[in-house]
Design a protein that fits this description.
heterodimer, A: 465 residues, alpha/beta, D-Maltodextrin-Binding Protein, domain 2, five-stranded mixed beta sheet, three-stranded antiparallel beta sheet, 18 helices, globular, B: 323 residues, mainly alpha, MetI-like fold, 2 domains, two-stranded antiparallel ribbon, 13 helices, flat
């Protein structure tokens, strides 16, 4: 009797988990299948393959809606992009009370990319949401390879309010496909209280050369124990941002420009020197970067896209002591850069293209709802607009106590307009990985010139098919 | 099963032909009974066969075709020359690193794990041991943990500010935190330790099952002949466990060659791709970074497939005692 009961329970548990697994991977499509087959064979164990498939990321999007006034949108980051979209929905509802925005939160930007890959592979775009949020550095590649997945905006926004750098991502052959959302302008923030202990002020770190920066950072490190900057070395954006601050690129005429590029070499040397001095912490991964170095109070400086601000604010003890300034350069002029950022794109699955375009231009595109949208997005999600006029609002010009009363948001919008447009590439992230490896190897004592040549030949290898 | 099914059907075909030639009524009747039985066999076999064909073999064939193409999945075109993807593999430094890493894991981890498993099995097979069941459960327990979870737990244990460093610091064994996952040597070691922790119990269960099939009287006879523990183990247990050892070795080799979760979740292949595995690299090529290169990824997958095939074949030959 006992045995029977036990076996019944076991069967029940198995049935439930099997159902859950099917529900998860059934819609995950070919991505899920490829993933789980690799795991399954590695396991040779039915039990664990069932639970691993249940863990798989859900990449399927929710598709479109039958309701003529409802748009669907897929986006990531509940603390950042989602509040911005909710703000836009609320603003647009004032002119179109029936309007509804169904927001699907995905766990990472790669979920949207994989959903496009999936739809493009099968030729079935019906599961795409009307609008997707897409990373700027990837959109060009996906636009070229999956041209059927997108449709242009049918209504013009106030394009003059955006920087050329930002629009260069979302415009193809002169046609606007995307609506920029957030501002990727980089900030270099310092802790005034720690600099003071070492006898410096923020002015000592504004408009200086990297050499001087390294020198002073070493003093700060010795006197206070704080490093002056950290970065997720698994996706190391430092070389890119530092190059952009110089107005230089790692690309030239569509090809990687590493060998013989003195600016590039100097910048790598700065990073390596900083890492060896302990003034730049290269974290192993993202969570170590944010949780250990920034929130864990190990650094007296943060250098990244301004979307890092919500992370910085989680270290409440440091409140009031941060000040944002510009980026050092090799020559000593004040540097401006941008990193990250994304835009909203209308997919080919959207049957309500006019509604979608109208919604986007009214809110994010500088229409009548723009100020309201961007103000609410800043308040609720810390999303800083890249639409210039939005920076003129009262809210943007309010001092932020976390930054010791600095009008940091207006400053960032202002800085964003100074960012020089540099040559971009579809292979941005491939190169980022290779340059990250290059830095690791040089820190470990390899010859810098040989490593640069190696990175150059590897990116060339990646680019030829 | 499929093979024997084939034999049966060809037999019946010959029979059928004979029957037709002679055209006898009795023969016809006999044939129909046999044919009915064979048909039943085929009906039972058919669903599995058809499903395996559609779900496994057909995609494999498709993948091979894909491995000769390039371009995005929406618009794939043939490579020129058609074998170019395979040619490219030879020049792909990252893949060669990945291959090296995978074989390093294989060579270091599999022997340690299997030896540990067999020793544990031997210990836990002892009839006089108390709480045997409890110990067995404990050793097997890691296998109930999903791969991703355990990889993430190991990652937090070995983080720069993680538990391992804290413990070692407090014991005074190290003077400053070790960057376990950020240094090539230690990162590889952590992956291997993780693999051993996760899979030893799993292999032990096979050995336990194998040991239980060995007659106890064999051991008694050995004892009477004056054989000590080591000799008993080496001359009786190991030879009798041979089929099990071969099976676990094949499974472990196969599994290690397709190692994925640990590389992705523990180290993400870093630092600078020195811990990346082949499967992880294939995944990176297909869905990891930017637009998928399914063509090249398929050709890589085929190379791994061939490697697994060759190793399994060698293993079978080595383990085969019949000749």
């Amino acid at each position: 009797m006992k045995k029977k009961l036990l076996s019944l329970m076991l069967a029940g548990v198995l049935a439930v988990t099997a159902l859950a697994a099917c529900g998860g991977s059934g819609s995950a499509g070919s991505d899920g299948a490829a993933d789980s087959s690799a795991e399954e064979t590695a396991d040779a164990d039915a039990g664990s393959s069932a639970d691993s498939s249940a863990e798989e990321e859900e990449v399927a999007l929710i598709g479109s809606s039958d309701d003529p006034n409802t748009l669907t949108v897929a986006a990531w980051d509940a603390n950042f992009n989602i509040p911005a979209l909710e703000a836009a929905e609320a603003a647009y509802q004032k002119v179109n009370p029936d309007f509804k925005l169904e927001i699907q939160e995905v766990s990472a930007s790669s979920d949207v990319e994989n959903a496009i890959t999936l739809a493009g592979s099968s030729g079935d775009y019906s599961q795409l949401t009307d609008i997707v949020l897409f990373q700027d550095h990837y959109i060009n590649q996906f636009m070229m390879n999956y041209p059927d997945a997108w449709q242009p905006l049918t209504k013009d926004a106030d394009w003059s309010g955006f920087s050329d750098d930002k629009l260069s991502y979302s415009t193809f052959d002169g046609t606007h496909y995307g609506m920029p959302v957030d501002n990727g302008a980089a900030i270099f923030a310092y802790r005034t209280d720690i600099l003071e202990q070492a006898g410096y002020t923020v002015d000592d770190f504004t408009g200086i050369t990297w050499d001087k920066w390294l020198e002073q950072a070493k003093v700060v490190k010795e006197k206070t124990g704080y490093a002056l900057m950290s970065m997720d070395h698994n996706g190391d954006d430092l070389p890119y941002m530092m190059m952009q601050a110089e107005g230089a690129s790692q690309w030239k005429d569509g090809k990687a420009n590493l060998v013989g590029n003195d600016t590039f070499k100097s910048i790598i040397e700065v990073i390596v020197q900083g890492a060896q001095d302990g003034t730049i912490i290269l974290a192993n991964d993202w969570s170590e970067y944010t949780d250990t170095t920034i929130i864990g109070d190990q650094v007296a400086g943060v250098f990244n896209g301004n979307w890092i601000i919500p992370t910085m604010k989680q270290n409440t003890a440091a409140s009031g002591n941060w000040v944002v300034t510009t980026i050092p350069t090799l020559s000593g002029k004040e540097g401006y850069a941008a990193n990250g950022g994304s835009s909203l794109y209308v997919t080919s699955n959207c049957q309500k293209a006019d509604l979608a375009s109208d919604f986007l231009t009214y809110t994010f595109g500088g229409g009548d709802g723009a100020i309201e949208t961007y103000d609410a997005a800043l308040t609720n999600g810390g999303v800083i607009s890249c639409y210039g006029p939005a920076g003129k609002s009262d809210l943007y010009n309010q001092p932020d106590e976390f930054f010791g009363g600095q009008t940091v948001y207006a400053d960032i919008v202002e800085n964003g307009t100074h960012v020089p447009a540099v040559e971009q590439s579809d292979y941005h992230y491939d190169l980022r990985t290779l340059v990250g490896n290059l830095i690791t190897n040089v820190i470990n004592g390899n010859d810098i010139d040989a490593e640069i040549e190696n990175a150059q030949s590897e990116i060339e290898f990646t680019m030829e098919e | 099963m499929i093979q024997s099914g084939n034999r049966v059907i060809s037999g019946s075909l010959i029979f059928l032909k004979k029957g037709e030639k002679k055209g006898g009524v009795i023969l016809n009747k006999g044939r129909s009974i046999q044919a009915k039985q064979q048909a039943a066999g085929w009906i039972f076999l058919a669903p599995a066969t058809i499903l395996i064909f559609i779900m496994s073999f057909w995609p494999m064939f498709q993948a091979f075709i894909m491995s000769l193409k390039k371009g995005s999945s929406a618009n794939m075109v043939w490579q020129t020359p058609i074998y170019h993807n395979y040619e490219r593999i030879l020049q792909d430094k990252t893949f060669l690193t990945a291959m090296g890493n995978t074989f390093l894991y294989l060579i270091v981890e599999v022997p340690i794990m299997l030896i540990l498993a067999i020793l544990l099995a031997q210990l836990l097979n002892n009839r006089d041991l108390k709480f045997r069941g409890a110990f067995r459960t404990m050793v097997f327990m890691p296998c109930a943990v999903s791969l991703v979870s355990y990889a993430l737990i190991f990652k937090s244990l070995f983080a720069t500010q993680g538990l391992i460093n804290t413990v070692l610091m407090n014991l005074g064994l190290i003077s400053e935190n070790i960057n376990w996952l950020g240094t090539t040597g230690t990162a590889r070691a952590v992956i291997i330790i993780g693999l051993i922790w996760r899979w030893t119990g799993y292999n032990m269960v096979f050995y336990l099952a194998g040991l239980q099939n060995i007659e106890y009287s064999v051991y008694e006879a050995a004892k009477i002949d004056g054989s000590n523990g080591w000799k008993t183990f080496w001359y009786i247990t190991v030879p009798l466990l041979r089929p099990t050892i071969v099976m676990t070795a094949i499974m472990s080799i196969n599994g290690t060659l397709q190692l994925f979760d640990e590389s992705v979740n523990l180290t993400n292949g870093g630092p600078s791709n020195t811990t990346i595995t082949m499967s992880h690299y294939i995944w990176n090529q297909s869905l990891g970074v930017g637009v998928a290169k399914f063509g090249y990824a398929s050709s890589l997958a085929f190379v791994v497939f061939i490697m697994v095939g060759i190793l399994a074949f060698i293993n079978l030959k080595v383990g085969d005692v019949r000749d």
